């Protein structure tokens, strides 16, 4: 299993030194995101929300100006820039490590100029062929998500022979393409894209087999927060899926499972429960490892096992 901080990513030393899964707090500067659309749409509100997430334990902030919920319509580049740049600049100036959530190369480039350190691209570079060049030239961390189309068409592309194998193979192809375009593999983080072109049942095998994706040799980010598959899981028989704001406890449970599997980071809306969860898992793993070393038998004998006498 890949350790969450075993890959030396181009992040501040304060983050790469952390011996645990990182928590990426979501700052949606949009009027139509599925979980909190419009709540932080004005720059002042988004900046204040970013500071609240940092106080709650976020390690990084993910600022996005375009909703990627199923069926969402695209905004133009100028509007996306208008939404995200003042928020990124203010939070970065205040000392936050900021990620920009975008599929556009020009938005990524401007965001990096404004202080962002991470590009979180749900298309993995497929939506804009110039993205790889921006990433390669900047040296930024690049999160490449598994993707099969924009929000208005992705549900029509949710067909898999074996979802774990197919996602692994498609992410491996993206990694090869990015490296071929000049991106240093040490810049790349992979994301299985939970909820993107994946019906509810297909998300669980990906969560249960993160090791298959980690075997590609790159850190893995998981974004399960408030997703539809959790709403369906929690729904009572005959009742509609629970709304996004009622999925936070389940999200924290997913964070716990991902941290125990060595995920590099989790992307969440409600930070404090997940920040607490990754610290609990980190302490549990440390104690488990030290106990295993303490109880390891000498000379290969099992503790308490009787040694055989000489054969007659």
Number of helices: 11
Mean of pLDDT: 88
Low-confidence stretches: 300-312
- The arrangement of helices and strands along the chain is HEHEHEHEHEHEHHEHHEH
Proportion of β residues?
5-15%
Helix content: 40-55%
Number of strand elements: 8
Largest sheet features:
8 strands, parallel
Tell me, what's the shape? globular
First-last Cα distance: 46 Å
Strand-pairing-aware structural class: alpha/beta
Strand order of the largest sheet: 6-5-4-3-2-1-8-7
Radius of gyration, CA atoms, in whole angstroms: 21 Å
Summarize the helices and strands and which ones pair or pack.
Blueprint: H1 13-16, E1 22-28, H2 43-55, E2 60-64, H3 77-93, E3 98-101, H4 105-113, E4 118-121, H5 131-138, E5 141-145, H6 163-180, E6 188-191, H7 200-208, H8 210-214, E7 221-222, H9 228-234, H10 248-260, E8 265-268, H11 271-295
Which features characterize this protein?
alpha/beta; 312 residues; 41% helix; globular; 8-stranded parallel sheet
Descriptive overview:
The C terminus is likely disordered. Helix content is 41%, strand content 11%. It is of the alpha/beta class and 312 residues long.
